[in-house]
Amino acid sequence: INNEVSFHKDDHNHTPNAEESGVKKCISQIKEMSNQSELTPQQIIAQIPCSSRAVSVALPTINAMKKTVLRIRHRKNAPQANPTVLSELTIFKSYNMTNIYIQRTISFIQ
Fold first, then answer.
1. From which domain of life does this come (predicted)?
2. Which site among 44, 53, 64, 74 is 20 to 30 Å from 34 CA-CA?
3. DSSP assignments along 54-87, one per residue
């Protein structure tokens, strides 16, 4: 305060949380692997070793961790892995035309 360094000593009233540090380590490993590999988010999450069951229970949901991987790749402009399952495939609406729709459009124009 007023360009002075102040020291405030408090007594903690809780014990250290081992799960919290374990979760932080797992999430940081996920982030590192997202930057360094082109594996799918599911493969990255499956390869992360958790030190205990308590840590694995305290981790975010799988969908949240997948989104973390995608966000990191988007920030770093790393290429996304090719989808291995149909549910991972994203087709943009502009490319989502069936042959029947195209044939009707062509016959209407002619």
1. Eukaryota
2. 53
3. HHHHHSPPHHHHHHHHHHHHHHHTPPPPPPSSGG
